[in-house]
Prior knowledge:
Blueprint: E1 9-14, H1 20-32, E2 38-42, H2 47-61, H3 74-78, H4 88-105, E3 108-112, H5 119-133, E4 138-142, H6 156-174, E5 178-183, H7 201-207, E6 211-217, H8 223-227, E7 231-241, E8 247-254, E9 259-262
Parallel strand pairs: 1-5, 1-6, 2-3, 2-4, 4-5
Antiparallel strand pairs: 6-7, 7-8, 8-9
Amino acid sequence: MGDGLYEELYTLGTISSLGKTASAMQIADNITYTGTDVLIFALEMPKSDLVARSISRLTYKNCSINSMSLRKTVRGILNGKKYKNYSAEEKHLIEESIRQYKELADNIYIYEGIGDIGVNYIRKTLTNHIRFIKKRPVIIVDYLQLLAPYNERYTDKQNVDKAVLELKRISRDYKIPIIAISSFNRAAYGEKVSMEAFKESGAIEYSSDVLVVGMQFKKQENTDEERKKEEREIEIKVLKNRNGMLGESYFRYYCKFNYFEEV
Length: 263
Protein backbone atom coordinates (compact mmCIF):
# COMPACT_ATOMS: atom_id res chain seq x y z
CA MET A 1 0.00 0.00 0.00
CA GLY A 2 3.00 2.29 -0.25
CA ASP A 3 3.68 2.63 3.51
CA GLY A 4 0.28 3.99 4.46
CA LEU A 5 -2.94 5.62 3.29
CA TYR A 6 -2.92 8.51 0.85
CA GLU A 7 -5.50 11.11 -0.13
CA GLU A 8 -7.39 8.67 -2.32
CA LEU A 9 -10.42 6.40 -2.49
CA TYR A 10 -9.81 2.80 -1.41
CA THR A 11 -12.30 0.00 -1.89
CA LEU A 12 -12.31 -3.22 0.12
CA GLY A 13 -14.56 -6.04 -1.01
CA THR A 14 -15.41 -9.53 0.18
CA ILE A 15 -18.19 -12.08 0.51
CA SER A 16 -20.29 -12.02 3.68
CA SER A 17 -18.91 -13.37 6.97
CA LEU A 18 -15.30 -13.01 5.88
CA GLY A 19 -14.46 -10.13 8.20
CA LYS A 20 -14.90 -6.97 6.15
CA THR A 21 -16.24 -5.00 9.12
CA ALA A 22 -13.74 -6.58 11.51
CA SER A 23 -10.86 -5.66 9.21
CA ALA A 24 -12.18 -2.10 8.84
CA MET A 25 -12.43 -1.65 12.61
CA GLN A 26 -8.93 -3.03 13.10
CA ILE A 27 -7.64 -0.58 10.47
CA ALA A 28 -9.51 2.25 12.21
CA ASP A 29 -8.06 1.38 15.61
CA ASN A 30 -4.53 1.18 14.20
CA ILE A 31 -4.91 4.56 12.48
CA THR A 32 -5.83 6.25 15.77
CA TYR A 33 -2.49 5.26 17.30
CA THR A 34 -1.00 7.98 15.11
CA GLY A 35 -3.39 10.57 16.58
CA THR A 36 -5.43 10.69 13.37
CA ASP A 37 -9.22 10.90 13.65
CA VAL A 38 -11.41 8.28 11.96
CA LEU A 39 -15.04 8.87 10.98
CA ILE A 40 -16.91 5.58 10.64
CA PHE A 41 -20.26 5.58 8.87
CA ALA A 42 -21.82 2.34 10.10
CA LEU A 43 -24.73 1.36 7.89
CA GLU A 44 -25.02 -2.29 8.90
CA MET A 45 -24.15 -2.68 12.60
CA PRO A 46 -25.01 -0.64 15.72
CA LYS A 47 -22.30 1.39 17.40
CA SER A 48 -22.33 -0.87 20.48
CA ASP A 49 -21.40 -3.92 18.37
CA LEU A 50 -18.55 -2.08 16.65
CA VAL A 51 -17.08 -0.93 19.96
CA ALA A 52 -17.47 -4.43 21.42
CA ARG A 53 -15.58 -5.86 18.43
CA SER A 54 -12.60 -3.65 19.22
CA ILE A 55 -12.71 -4.58 22.90
CA SER A 56 -13.02 -8.27 22.01
CA ARG A 57 -9.93 -7.95 19.81
CA LEU A 58 -8.04 -6.35 22.68
CA THR A 59 -8.98 -9.19 25.05
CA TYR A 60 -7.41 -11.55 22.51
CA LYS A 61 -4.25 -9.48 22.15
CA ASN A 62 -3.89 -8.99 25.92
CA CYS A 63 -3.92 -12.72 26.70
CA SER A 64 -0.79 -14.78 27.06
CA ILE A 65 -0.59 -18.30 25.64
CA ASN A 66 -1.49 -19.69 29.07
CA SER A 67 -4.57 -17.51 29.53
CA MET A 68 -6.30 -17.79 26.16
CA SER A 69 -9.46 -19.18 27.77
CA LEU A 70 -10.10 -15.73 29.28
CA ARG A 71 -10.68 -14.09 25.86
CA LYS A 72 -14.11 -12.68 25.24
CA THR A 73 -16.35 -12.58 22.18
CA VAL A 74 -18.63 -9.66 21.33
CA ARG A 75 -21.53 -11.41 23.08
CA GLY A 76 -19.31 -12.14 26.04
CA ILE A 77 -18.76 -8.41 26.43
CA LEU A 78 -22.26 -7.15 25.64
CA ASN A 79 -24.25 -9.71 27.63
CA GLY A 80 -24.24 -8.32 31.16
CA LYS A 81 -25.87 -11.44 32.59
CA LYS A 82 -22.65 -13.35 31.98
CA TYR A 83 -20.57 -11.05 34.14
CA LYS A 84 -21.78 -12.54 37.44
CA ASN A 85 -20.09 -15.81 36.45
CA TYR A 86 -16.82 -14.25 35.33
CA SER A 87 -13.72 -14.74 37.41
CA ALA A 88 -11.71 -11.83 38.77
CA GLU A 89 -9.16 -12.48 36.00
CA GLU A 90 -11.82 -12.28 33.28
CA LYS A 91 -13.24 -9.05 34.68
CA HIS A 92 -9.77 -7.55 34.94
CA LEU A 93 -9.04 -8.48 31.32
CA ILE A 94 -12.25 -6.80 30.12
CA GLU A 95 -11.60 -3.69 32.25
CA GLU A 96 -8.03 -3.38 30.96
CA SER A 97 -9.19 -3.81 27.35
CA ILE A 98 -11.86 -1.14 27.84
CA ARG A 99 -9.24 1.19 29.33
CA GLN A 100 -7.03 0.68 26.28
CA TYR A 101 -9.94 1.26 23.93
CA LYS A 102 -10.79 4.53 25.68
CA GLU A 103 -7.35 5.82 24.66
CA LEU A 104 -8.28 5.17 21.03
CA ALA A 105 -11.88 6.31 21.31
CA ASP A 106 -10.96 10.00 21.55
CA ASN A 107 -10.11 9.78 17.85
CA ILE A 108 -13.01 7.58 16.69
CA TYR A 109 -16.37 8.98 15.64
CA ILE A 110 -19.08 6.45 14.75
CA TYR A 111 -22.23 7.52 12.91
CA GLU A 112 -24.81 4.78 12.63
CA GLY A 113 -27.87 4.70 10.43
CA ILE A 114 -29.77 2.44 8.09
CA GLY A 115 -31.07 4.02 4.92
CA ASP A 116 -30.61 7.62 6.02
CA ILE A 117 -26.87 8.17 5.57
CA GLY A 118 -25.82 9.12 2.06
CA VAL A 119 -22.88 10.86 0.45
CA ASN A 120 -24.32 14.33 1.12
CA TYR A 121 -24.57 13.51 4.84
CA ILE A 122 -20.96 12.27 4.79
CA ARG A 123 -19.76 15.49 3.15
CA LYS A 124 -21.65 17.67 5.65
CA THR A 125 -20.37 15.67 8.63
CA LEU A 126 -16.81 15.88 7.35
CA THR A 127 -17.11 19.64 6.78
CA ASN A 128 -18.31 20.15 10.36
CA HIS A 129 -15.58 17.90 11.75
CA ILE A 130 -12.82 19.87 10.06
CA ARG A 131 -14.44 23.15 11.05
CA PHE A 132 -14.87 22.37 14.74
CA ILE A 133 -12.22 19.71 15.51
CA LYS A 134 -9.59 21.27 13.21
CA LYS A 135 -8.34 17.88 11.99
CA ARG A 136 -8.61 16.07 8.67
CA PRO A 137 -9.76 12.51 9.39
CA VAL A 138 -9.81 9.21 7.55
CA ILE A 139 -13.32 8.09 6.53
CA ILE A 140 -14.60 4.50 6.54
CA VAL A 141 -17.94 3.64 4.91
CA ASP A 142 -19.42 0.28 5.92
CA TYR A 143 -20.77 -0.44 3.46
CA LEU A 144 -21.19 1.05 0.00
CA GLN A 145 -24.39 -0.70 -1.10
CA LEU A 146 -26.25 0.45 2.05
CA LEU A 147 -25.76 4.16 1.47
CA ALA A 148 -29.01 6.07 1.08
CA PRO A 149 -29.93 6.39 -2.62
CA TYR A 150 -28.59 9.54 -4.21
CA ASN A 151 -31.72 9.68 -6.35
CA GLU A 152 -34.81 7.54 -5.76
CA ARG A 153 -35.36 7.32 -9.51
CA TYR A 154 -31.93 5.83 -10.17
CA THR A 155 -31.35 2.11 -10.47
CA ASP A 156 -29.23 0.39 -7.81
CA LYS A 157 -26.27 0.45 -10.17
CA GLN A 158 -26.70 4.16 -10.91
CA ASN A 159 -26.89 4.96 -7.20
CA VAL A 160 -23.76 2.93 -6.42
CA ASP A 161 -21.92 4.55 -9.33
CA LYS A 162 -22.93 8.01 -8.11
CA ALA A 163 -21.93 7.20 -4.53
CA VAL A 164 -18.48 6.04 -5.63
CA LEU A 165 -17.95 9.16 -7.74
CA GLU A 166 -19.07 11.44 -4.90
CA LEU A 167 -16.80 9.69 -2.38
CA LYS A 168 -13.93 10.12 -4.79
CA ARG A 169 -14.81 13.81 -5.13
CA ILE A 170 -14.94 14.24 -1.33
CA SER A 171 -11.53 12.58 -1.00
CA ARG A 172 -10.03 14.98 -3.52
CA ASP A 173 -11.82 18.10 -2.26
CA TYR A 174 -10.70 17.57 1.35
CA LYS A 175 -7.44 15.71 0.63
CA ILE A 176 -8.24 12.73 2.86
CA PRO A 177 -8.22 8.93 2.50
CA ILE A 178 -11.62 7.25 2.22
CA ILE A 179 -12.08 3.50 2.64
CA ALA A 180 -15.33 2.16 1.20
CA ILE A 181 -16.33 -1.43 1.98
CA SER A 182 -18.24 -3.24 -0.75
CA SER A 183 -20.09 -6.54 -0.86
CA PHE A 184 -19.56 -9.09 -3.64
CA ASN A 185 -22.06 -10.40 -6.14
CA ARG A 186 -23.68 -13.66 -5.04
CA ALA A 187 -22.58 -15.19 -8.32
CA ALA A 188 -18.96 -14.62 -7.28
CA TYR A 189 -19.20 -16.65 -4.06
CA GLY A 190 -16.85 -19.61 -4.30
CA GLU A 191 -15.00 -18.08 -7.25
CA LYS A 192 -11.53 -16.57 -7.21
CA VAL A 193 -11.69 -12.88 -6.38
CA SER A 194 -11.80 -10.59 -9.41
CA MET A 195 -13.01 -7.14 -10.36
CA GLU A 196 -16.28 -8.65 -11.59
CA ALA A 197 -17.02 -9.86 -8.05
CA PHE A 198 -17.75 -6.34 -6.84
CA LYS A 199 -21.44 -5.47 -6.87
CA GLU A 200 -22.22 -2.92 -9.58
CA SER A 201 -18.50 -3.00 -10.29
CA GLY A 202 -18.34 -0.41 -13.08
CA ALA A 203 -17.70 2.72 -11.01
CA ILE A 204 -15.81 0.79 -8.33
CA GLU A 205 -13.37 -0.51 -10.91
CA TYR A 206 -12.80 2.76 -12.73
CA SER A 207 -13.16 5.33 -9.95
CA SER A 208 -11.27 3.81 -7.03
CA ASP A 209 -8.13 5.90 -7.10
CA VAL A 210 -5.43 3.81 -5.58
CA LEU A 211 -6.54 0.42 -4.54
CA VAL A 212 -9.24 -2.15 -5.02
CA VAL A 213 -8.72 -5.00 -2.58
CA GLY A 214 -10.51 -8.33 -2.63
CA MET A 215 -10.64 -10.66 0.36
CA GLN A 216 -11.16 -14.39 -0.04
CA PHE A 217 -10.35 -17.66 1.67
CA LYS A 218 -6.86 -18.89 0.90
CA LYS A 219 -8.52 -22.21 0.00
CA GLN A 220 -11.34 -20.61 -1.96
CA GLU A 221 -12.43 -23.90 -3.51
CA ASN A 222 -13.51 -25.15 -0.04
CA THR A 223 -15.58 -22.14 1.05
CA ASP A 224 -18.14 -24.11 3.08
CA GLU A 225 -15.45 -25.94 5.03
CA GLU A 226 -13.44 -22.77 5.64
CA ARG A 227 -16.49 -21.01 7.10
CA LYS A 228 -16.69 -23.63 9.86
CA LYS A 229 -13.22 -22.80 11.17
CA GLU A 230 -12.62 -20.38 14.02
CA GLU A 231 -9.18 -19.58 12.62
CA ARG A 232 -9.49 -18.84 8.91
CA GLU A 233 -6.72 -18.40 6.36
CA ILE A 234 -7.47 -15.26 4.37
CA GLU A 235 -5.90 -13.95 1.18
CA ILE A 236 -6.08 -10.23 0.50
CA LYS A 237 -5.53 -9.52 -3.17
CA VAL A 238 -4.70 -6.12 -4.65
CA LEU A 239 -6.64 -5.91 -7.92
CA LYS A 240 -5.83 -2.32 -8.79
CA ASN A 241 -3.22 0.11 -7.54
CA ARG A 242 -2.53 3.17 -9.66
CA ASN A 243 0.52 4.25 -7.72
CA GLY A 244 1.91 0.97 -6.50
CA MET A 245 2.23 -2.76 -6.93
CA LEU A 246 -0.33 -5.53 -7.30
CA GLY A 247 -0.06 -8.73 -5.31
CA GLU A 248 -1.32 -10.77 -2.39
CA SER A 249 -0.96 -10.76 1.38
CA TYR A 250 -2.01 -13.52 3.76
CA PHE A 251 -3.66 -13.26 7.15
CA ARG A 252 -5.06 -15.49 9.84
CA TYR A 253 -8.54 -14.31 10.87
CA TYR A 254 -9.68 -15.21 14.38
CA CYS A 255 -13.36 -14.66 13.67
CA LYS A 256 -14.62 -15.09 17.25
CA PHE A 257 -12.41 -12.24 18.38
CA ASN A 258 -12.44 -10.02 15.25
CA TYR A 259 -8.68 -10.12 14.90
CA PHE A 260 -6.54 -10.27 11.76
CA GLU A 261 -2.94 -11.41 12.10
CA GLU A 262 -0.48 -11.16 9.22
CA VAL A 263 1.30 -14.40 8.41
